[in-house]
């Protein structure tokens, strides 16, 4: 008789947990998964997927306007928020069903209840006690509300996917991924949109040229961007809310949305009693094999707060399942993970920023271009695309690629393969461009940006 009820018990049926569970199941492990919400996790239910559908919705307005330059006459256009919500919800239901089927097809038992660890090999799941040889925590994260008086009157991205009606005015607090993506969505849908960001420039951690280009683009698209300011207090106003900022000014809006970061879901899992070490931000501390400080207890995805992206969580889950049950020990590789912000303009990057490269290599070459996309030569819209390559001059390797503009994410995926493989600038140059395209600029950048003065003087 088996010593445990299952080989692997996974807590959380998001992208990471589902991948780990079904790959482990495919390798022959007896796997159970607990989920106390809908199957699919943040990405499918209240993240990447519905967000991208909203982004598509928001891009129609400028397309309608631009069509005239290409000879089209359009009739009256009208946007209906409930239609978008209903269609989005139907698609999410479909995807959640696919995730369920993937689990079932891999022989994984799904338990729709909350799980808590009682000891290293025992869980309490919806009133049942289940023993497991190994436990995987894949519980993801949740949006955080900053400690501001009246914060409870604001909402987060979770609620923004279900607004009963489209607000007329919205204030978004934060300057990261979610703030900028939702700013583009609401602005594109005709909402008067203000972003309030505490720092000097949005998208901290991204390349400085990217940050500048995206801030310029947001303003051109009509988003109001207030930097070096934060929310001091939020109060009810009729209608909506009144947001008092740190400089004393008051913004009135129908909604205020916090996009001020996310926190790992580690509360109430029984981790402290078991001695599972957490990081200062409350994430499960793991080694390179995704094992926690307690042998046999593992964690992947946002709950570990490494790189909080869906494909990274699935990579970690897949590597773990192969390692534990596939007879193939392999590490998740966190180097050169490409990433995109589906703001308007769109941002995508892989590898090092210029500042990171300058800190790491003695000689760095920068190639950069900024141009009006061909499409907008007819429309007259003041769109700009910015592309940049960061090169370690000693080895000639391209160590960073950055783009702001249409299709940045689609273009960067291919560039990321080259960067991951360690391609040199000469190899980029030897690649023939696809003409006419924006992407071809990545293989036709010939002129170095003059080195900064401090460097030039060396
Ligand atoms: P981010 O970490 O990207 O941004 C958080 C923002 O909130 C930052 O601008 C931060 O400012 C600001 N902030 C934090 N605390 C406060 C505070 N107390 N008061 C005011 N402002 C504050 O988090 P998001 O919530 O936007 O997204 C979470 C993560 O989810 C992302 O980092 C990303 O990993 C992932 N994600 C990925 C997406 C994608 O792949 N396209 C889309 C959405 C999310 P500061 O810079 O000064 O710290």
Structure description:
The chain is an alpha/beta fold and 458 residues long. It has three domains: 6-142 and 263-325, 3-Layer(bba) Sandwich (FAD/NAD(P)-binding domain), CATH 3.50.50; 151-260, 3-Layer(bba) Sandwich (FAD/NAD(P)-binding domain); 346-451, 2-Layer Sandwich (Enolase-like, domain 1), CATH 3.30.390. Helices cover 32% and strands 23% of the residues. The model has no long low-confidence stretch (mean pLDDT 97). Residues 146, 173-179, 181, 197-199, 204, 230, 259-262, 308-309, 339-342 line the site of NADPH dihydro-nicotinamide-adenine-dinucleotide phosphate.
Key words describing this protein structure:
458 residues, alpha/beta, FAD/NAD(P)-binding domain, Enolase-like, domain 1, 3 domains, 7-stranded mixed beta sheet, globular, binds NADPH dihydro-nicotinamide-adenine-dinucleotide phosphate
Briefly note the structural class of the backbone: alpha/beta
Mean pLDDT: 97
Largest sheet, described in full? 7 strands, mixed
**The CATH homologous superfamily of the largest domain:** FAD/NAD(P)-binding domain
Bound molecules: NADPH dihydro-nicotinamide-adenine-dinucleotide phosphate
Q: Write down the CATH topology of the largest domain.
A: FAD/NAD(P)-binding domain
Query: Using DSSP, what is the number of strands?
Result: 21
β-sheet strand percentage: 15-25%
Gyration radius (Cα, Å) is: 24 Å
Helix content: 25-40%
Distance between the termini: 72 Å
Low-confidence stretches: none
CATH architecture level-2 label of the largest domain: 3-Layer(bba) Sandwich
Count every helix, treating DSSP H or I runs of 4 or more residues as helices.
15
User: What's the CATH first level of the largest domain?
Assistant: Alpha Beta
Give the overall shape, derived from the CA principal axes. Answer: globular
Number of domains: 3
